[in-house]
Amino acid sequence: MKRLRNLMLLCCLTGLLVPGTGAAMDADELIAKHLEATGGVAKLKAVESQKVTGKVMVQGMEIPLTIYQKRPNRLRSEAQVMGKTVVQCYDGAKGWSVNPMTGSEDPQPMSEFEEKNVKLQADMDGVLVDYADKGYTAEYLGEDEVEGTPAHKLRLDTGQDIVVDFYFDKDYFLVIKQDSKITFEGNEIESSMYMSDYQEVDGLIVPFAIETRQGDMTVTQIMLEAYEFDVPVDDAIFVMPAPQEAPPAEAEHPQKPDHPQKK
């Protein structure tokens, strides 16, 4: 694994440094530059599976995290919480989860809201690759700024009640912020993700730090430790298991009536 200590070097290598002429930009050009900066579409599509490990900080707790992905569009995350494994999974068609923190270790189908979000996450190529073929629309919204960093802004509408605004670093075309808006039952749920600490792994440029915020409040901080591409991933881990059978109740023996005392 090669740590990217100098993003300027990356730009020189890929020829993506933007001249200071303020040339016009459109959605497809911006997406193409971004995909090239992350390693190229061919390399992205060549990855058949991946395993990502790290830790997530939630409410002061440091939780080990493992994420598995495999084509086509299968995703499983496992978080170790207080000796229990919390699972979220998408099998390519439906989502399910196991959360022992609720008092049950039986798998449960995801809600419609949860499934909408995890379905997009399960896209191994990322939602921007072949976005039009997926039925999405993209619109370039001009230049913006993310905490002092000049950025290009792009809006992706999935047509499935999810709209995502991407902010690409203006010089390097890597995503540094992502705003998501999900409409569900008439309500809009918004969140933001901030990506940083980009590194090169097997020719792909990936973020090792991801912070999720709602408004000004940090919800989670993910610190990734390793990406492993094309590792063996068993198809069975994406299949929703059957509920655990309750142990058979012990048969109650009828109480024998007291025998009358002999007189």
Could you describe the 3D structure shown?
There is one protein chain. With 263 residues, the protein is mostly beta strands. It has one domain (2-16, 24-232): Lipoprotein localisation LolA/LolB/LppX (outer membrane lipoprotein receptor (LolB), chain A, Clam). The protein has helices spanning 7-14, 27-37, 41-46, 112-121, and strands spanning 2-3, 49-58, 61-70, 74-81, 84-90, 95-98, 108-109, 137-146, 149-157, 162-169, 175-184, 187-201, 204-214, 217-229. Strands 1, 2, 3, 4, 5, 6, 7, 8, 9, 10, 11, 12, 13 and 14 form a 14-stranded antiparallel sheet that branches. It is globular, with a radius of gyration of 24 Å. Residues 1-23 have low confidence and may be disordered.
Tell me the CATH topology: outer membrane lipoprotein receptor (LolB), chain A
Question: How far from one another are the termini?
Answer: 93 Å
CATH superfamily: Lipoprotein localisation LolA/LolB/LppX
Helix % is 10-25%
Percent strand equals: over 45%
Number of domains: 1
* E-strand count: 14
CA gyration radius, whole angstroms: 24 Å
Largest sheet properties: 14 strands, antiparallel
| CATH C-level | Mainly Beta
The low-confidence parts are 1-23
**What is the CATH architecture term?**
Clam
Count of helical regions: 4
Mean pLDDT: 87
What class would the helix/strand composition place it in?
mainly beta
Shape: globular
Order of helices and strands: EHHHEEEEEEHEEEEEEE
